[in-house]
Design brief:
The complex is a heterodimer of chains A (about 400) and B (about 260). By secondary structure, chain A is α+β, with helices and mostly antiparallel strands. Chain A is about 50% helix and about 20% strand. Chain A has 12 helices and 14 strands. In chain A, a hairpin with a 2-residue loop joins strand 2 and strand 3. In chain A, helix 1 packs across helix 10. The longest helix of chain B is centred in the C-terminal third of the chain and has 17 residues, at about 195-210. Chain B has a 6-stranded mixed beta sheet, sandwiched between helices. Chain B is globular. In chain B, a hairpin with a 2-residue loop joins strand 9 (about 230-235) and strand 10 (about 235-240). The chains are: A alpha+beta (about 400), B alpha/beta (about 260). Chains A and B meet through helix 1, helix 9 and helix 12 of A and helix 3 of B.
């Protein structure tokens, strides 16, 4: 059998199979819905991980260094003093702005807020910043109200935090301990993790929490990404300080990893279990499809069609079911979950991160690949069975 | 191919005396579990080019098994099957499929049309195995439908056609590749008397006017009467005589008497 003949046979049988799907729509729908369910769950769960990753790492830069006390893995466990900050000002490779070195010492504390909807308490980051902090976050923008005034009990709230926690709208007041803070503005920061935070003046926050002249972290803008190694080496070699520096991309990727891995592992466990069910549904559908056409398949073989086009055509039909299921599941996920806002705890900082589910092209591709695998497994045995069935016996079926 | 072309490739009426089918000492044994069940026993048969032969016999006598061997759907346990000069008993399954596509026109009891395709697409199915151009395929389909008198029903699907019309489409499909041999397995078994008569008229005309060699398995004596020769199978052996007086003996008898 030449390739041309094989191709014509495959095309003819496949076309016929596909034209008769509508007549077998009820049983076909079982396979399609099964596959759509698996793809939908896969994409939905992984879109949560993708959204979380995007928020945590989306605005990370290679030319920004995160400096913590040596040995600290997160901001809460780190403390920096004035000498540390002075060393950073003088360190090699640090970029300079109009007001001096682009070094942003920041204080990081956590306050309780209630989650909108759930009503349960959640840890929300409250960050003390100063002018360099804004310069370092180029995408910072006040979208409602105004920025806080240094020296006053005023805060601005990230867009994600404002939507996820109660009492954080412009005009609201936040009572923390003996102090009362007024929300004077809402800001965005390019969709990054800063949008899950509340910001205020560094000095006011230091006084409120009796931190004296200390901070938790410093962000340092370098002249370029290549300057990092010399900068890090200078900190390590300086006997006056005990500091550790990481690129912001590395630091935030590590912050994001535990929850990403957790979501992905749980998601895949669910998906694998569902896939087993979908494979059985596809098998059942394809066996029924082949059985309902056994006389027609036998007729084609009697007329001279060979086994291979029969196998290929049944496989293609099953793969088409997979693609339809992938399209349905992917579309459902996209409509239901893309942009769906949620907040979860960032285990690295024990504070909440507000994020939106992100149904990305990569996730949809993963969904399609999974659907094709299910379709291929579900179609293989029925396809082989169809090709091996006795022509003579099938021809006499009524 | 035209009706005239078709006719010119064959003689005009009846057998030429040249063998279209030569079955030599064929046996076919099926396994039922561990028990061998012989269905055809050392059977020999010659069928002349242009002949219309009816095979009769009770259920289980082996007539369909014999038809399947001659049509290349099955292979014998022993003996030789030579059709149109080709020893098909020795062909591989793949080659046998190709041989069927080129040489055999099948007419089934239930027409076996593909339900989702209209008449002309059903007729065109065997042409998908050829290298004819699309234009040539269309031409052949039109001619085949014209021969069976269904040119005006070409766009209808099987469910929109009567049983007789469906069988005519099946015959057009059998003709479209211009095979020398038509094998018909109970072609009127699912039809009423009047419609059966029309289908048999068509087969007779194809044999007489187009020179097609026709091998027909039937239970119906009236249908068999339309053939030029009738053979009876009993217990896997030829055992009777036709209305033309040809005597056919079981294969273990002297071979010359069987033709």
């Amino acid at each position: 059998m030449g390739l041309g003949s094989l191709a014509r046979q495959c095309q003819a049988v496949t076309r016929y199979n596909l034209e008769t799907i509508w007549e077998r729509r009820a049983v076909s729908a079982v396979a399609i819905f099964g596959i759509a369910g698996v793809v939908g769950v896969l994409v939905a769960v992984l879109s949560m991980a993708a959204g979380f990753r995007s928020v945590v790492t989306g605005q990370a830069r290679d030319d920004v260094a995160v400096v913590l006390r040596s040995g600290s893995t997160g901001e809460s466990a780190s403390i920096l003093n004035h000498q540390d900050i002075q060393v950073l000002w003088e360190a090699p490779g640090v970029a300079r702005g109009p007001d001096g070195p682009l070094v942003s010492p920041e204080l990081f504390v956590i306050i309780d807020r209630k989650k909108i909807g759930a009503g349960t308490d959640a840890n929300v980051p409250l960050r003390g910043v100063e002018a360099a902090g804004f310069a370092l976050r180029e995408q910072f923008e006040i979208v409602e109200g105004r920025n806080f005034e240094p020296g006053r009990n005023e805060v601005i709230v990230g867009d994600g935090a404002a939507g996820a926690f109660e009492g954080l709208l412009v005009g609201d007041r936040i009572d923390v301990g003996r102090a009362s803070w007024e929300v004077v503005g809402r800001f965005t920061a390019g969709g990054g993790i800063a949008e899950s935070e509340i910001w205020t003046d560094n000095r006011i926050l230091q006084q409120m929490y009796q931190r004296g002249n200390s901070w938790n972290v410093a962000l340092v803008r370098l002249r370029d990404a290549d300057a990092f190694d010399a900068f890090e080496a200078a900190l390590t070699d300086d006997p006056r300080v005990s500091l550790g520096a990481q690129r912001q991309t590395t630091y935030l990727a590590a912050q994001s990893e535990p929850i990403e891995v957790f979501i992905s592992v749980v998601g895949w466990i669910i998906v694998v279990m569902m896939s087993a069910g979908a494979i059985f549904a596809a098998l059942n559908t394809m066996y029924a499809a082949v059985s309902s056409r056994s006389r027609e398949i036998a007729t084609l073989r009697a007329l001279g069609f060979s086994r291979l086009p029969i196998v290929i055509s049944v496989m293609i039909e099953s793969l088409v079911f997979g693609l339809i299921g992938a399209a349905a599941g992917g579309a459902a996920s996209w409509f239901l979950f893309d942009g769906f806002r949620a907040a979860t705890i960032n285990w690295a900082s024990f504070s909440q991160v507000a994020f939106a589910f992100e149904v990305t092209p990569e996730l949809l591709t993963q969904g399609i690949v999974l659907a094709l695998v299910i379709g291929a497994i579900g179609g293989f045995l029925p396809a082989v069975g169809a090709a091996r069935r006795s022509v003579i016996g099938a021809l006499r079926e009524q | 191919m035209s009706e005239k072309d078709m006719a010119e490739t064959q003689n005009t009426n009846g057998a030429t005396g040249e063998a279209m089918v030569d079955v030599r000492s064929v046996s076919r044994v099926f396994q039922r579990g561990r028990t061998p069940v012989p269905v055809l026993k050392d059977l020999s048969l010659r069928m002349a080019n242009g002949e219309f032969l009816a095979l009769m016999g009770p259920s289980g006598s082996g007539k369909s098994t014999l038809l399947n061997l001659i049509a290349g759907l099955d292979r014998p346990t022993g003996g030789e099957v030579i059709v149109g000069g080709s020893p098909i008993h020795s062909l591989s399954e793949r080659k046998l499929a190709g041989w069927r596509a080129r040489n055999i026109g099948f007419v089934f009891q239930f027409s076996n049309l593909l339900g989702a395709l209209n008449a002309e697409r059903n007729v065109a199915v065997p042409l998908l195995l050829t290298s004819f151009s699309a234009r040539e395929r269309r031409r052949r389909v039109e001619i085949a439908l014209e021969i069976v008198g269904l040119s005006d029903r070409s766009k209808h699907r099987p469910r929109e056609l009567s049983g007789g019309e469906q069988q005519r489409v099946g015959i057009a499909r059998a003709l479209v590749n211009d095979p020398a041999l038509l094998v018909c397995d109970e072609p009127t078994g699912d039809l009423d008397r009047a419609t059966s008569g029309e289908i048999l008229d068509l087969l007779v005309a194809l044999n007489r006017d187009q020179g097609k060699t026709v091998l027909m398995v039937t239970h119906d004596p009236e249908a068999a009467e339309r053939a030029s020769r009738i053979l009876h199978l009993v217990d896997g052996q030829l055992a009777d005589c036709g209305h033309d007086g040809t005597i056919v003996l079981p294969a273990h008898e002297p071979a010359g008497a069987a033709v």
